[in-house]
Amino acid sequence: MATTGSWRRQVGRDGGLPLFRAAGIPVLLAPSWWLGSAAIVVLYAPMVSRLVPGADGTTGVLLAATFAVFLGLSVLAHELGHSLVALRLGLPVRRLRLFLLGGVSEVMRTPTRPGHEGAIAVAGPLVSIFLAGVFALAAVAMPAPDAIWLLVAQTAFANAAVAVFNLLPGLPLDGGRILRAGVWAVTGRRATGTKAAVAGGGVVAAMLVVWAIWGVLEGSEDRWVRFGVCLLTAWFVLAGARGELTAEHRRTWPDGLTLSELVRPVLQLPAESPVSGALTASAGRGVVLVRADGVAAGLLDREMARRLASTSPHAPAEQAAVPIRPETVLLENESGDEVVERVHGTAAWEYLVVDLEGRPAGVLRREDLKNVLDGRASGAAARPPGSR
């Protein structure tokens, strides 16, 4: 476990200012957040002077800065909604980042069920709707409109706007994830849901561009601000949708590919074999090291074997073995998507493939699967190691 100091150094290298931990999740403030907050102050401060008689420039700036903080806290609550549901479902969250256009919860594992995907996605907008209701009721209960009333009312409106925008049915927005979960539940294929939600992201981006151009054509007072914000948001949506599609390609088993095409041959050697000999035998194949009592000592780790052979070539190969864990064993009849999910969720570089009777049938190397999926994501033809 990292210490607080090392955590802060690591997070700082990722381009964000560490603030604190919420529910054990590091919360970062990206540099772009300051730019967005400055824009809010510039736009909001004059509004205070117009809507609140008697408010001077200093009051306007202070209220604008407070509104920027309130908005940041609202986005933080929105993202915590996602994160807490993810943790509840057993999905670890790496960190939570606040940036120019909102925030993001970095869930470290992909939900394996459409219900989980939908639950995580809807949690954020529900938090925003709740906050909008609370601030709206507070504004209604206030006796007379003044500067504080304006701050409360604007925070209610901002939370409502965050909820409505995020519910638009296009990735990478929450509404896109909800759409993906729904299509996934109906079709049984996450990839189909992703394609539908990516198309929705394109529609959302197009609507933003149309709205920006419409503001310029009709000469609205805020046309240039609207133009800039809409174009920036449209770019964010398109880039996020494209990233989601690429990620989906990298986690979806290609049609027509069989596990046997990726599996390398496996060789069983005595665990006491010289490590140099075992390393030579491992070229292009996996090596299962077996003790004299018939129990497997593990899979030969080639990097460990190289280091050991450089200093002690006659040392027992078992010293360079990685134990065979249940999560690193694959059945030869497992579906491709199950194989991808297992490899993505397990830290190992090689997986033992066994037949229905438990006998070693080959090994799957992480790099082989990655090369095929990366080639599919980029549109290149990746050649499986077992193909001819």
Structural commentary:
- Helices cover 58% and strands 14% of the residues.
- It is α/β, with parallel strands linked by helices.
- It is elongated, with a radius of gyration of 27 Å.
**Terminal CA distance:** 46 Å
Give the overall shape, derived from the CA principal axes.
elongated
Order of helices and strands: HEEHHEEHHHHHHEHEEHEEHEEH
Oligomer: single chain
Largest sheet, if any? 4 strands, mixed
The Cα radius of gyration reads 27 Å
Low-pLDDT residue spans: 1-13
Helix content: 55-70%
- Average pLDDT value? 84
Question: What percent of residues are in strands?
Answer: 5-15%
Task: Tell me the strand order in the biggest sheet.
Answer: 1-2-3-4
Number of helices: 13
Structural class: alpha/beta
The total beta strand count reads 11
Domain Peptidase M50: 67-142, 150-206
Subcellular location: Cell membrane
Main location: membrane
Protein name: Zinc metalloprotease
